[in-house]
Amino acid sequence: QKEVEQNSGPLSVPEGAIASLNCTYSDRGSQSFFWYRQYSGKSPELIMFIYSNGDKEDGRFTAQLNKASQYVSLLIRDSQPSDSATYLCAVKTSGTYKYIFGTGTRLKVLA
Amino acid sequence: GAVVSQHPSWVICKSGTSVKIECRSLDFQATTMFWYRQFPKQSLMLMATSNEGSKATYEQGVEKDKFLINHASLTLSTLTVTSAHPEDSSFYICSAWTGGGEKLFFGSGTQLSVL
Questions:
Q1: Which of A88, B27, B81, B103 is the most exposed place for a label (fewest CB within 10 A)?
Q2: Is B57 an 8 Å CB contact of chain A?
Q3: Do A90 and B104 touch (CB under 8 A)?
Q4: Cβ atoms < 10 Å from Cβ of B109
């Protein structure tokens, strides 16, 4: 069973702090990794994707991938109350169309 | 990013009726679309993969006769929930795959409530 695991949270951070969200996956053949943000009652919105080991930065967001440890993380700098949402980690295995989603981590940024 | 339109946003229906949900890719051609289901505070559960011009591939445990999927064109896939029951009440989300980019973009979702 291919799995993607996330801590459900809630993860509470003060406004302006760095929020760190973590995700582990079981399938070593996974090639593509995505972070989606989902507000309550809304559909997921793609915020970051990463394919190679290391860091990838986009504005206040940094995705980190370590394939050896089967670990992917998302850092949100200068967290804002509007960042409060559920963050879903998704993993896609090469050669398939299937994306496996984690259960999501609920982030609360406190004003 | 690519735009995926889903309608309706919410629907309330009586038990035993059928409901059709549409998913359109507005600015790209989607040979593959996916249908997910999400219960409150749970993750997305893949129901089926829809390929243009061919039969959908259903995940284990998903009744293909209850959840009819039609992908008649490169920009439109529909999900019909037949003979809906209260346990079918859920948030249904479609997504389209952009192919080479490997990114998955989601429609806005449909909240189905079956009375």
A1: B27
A2: no
A3: yes
A4: 21
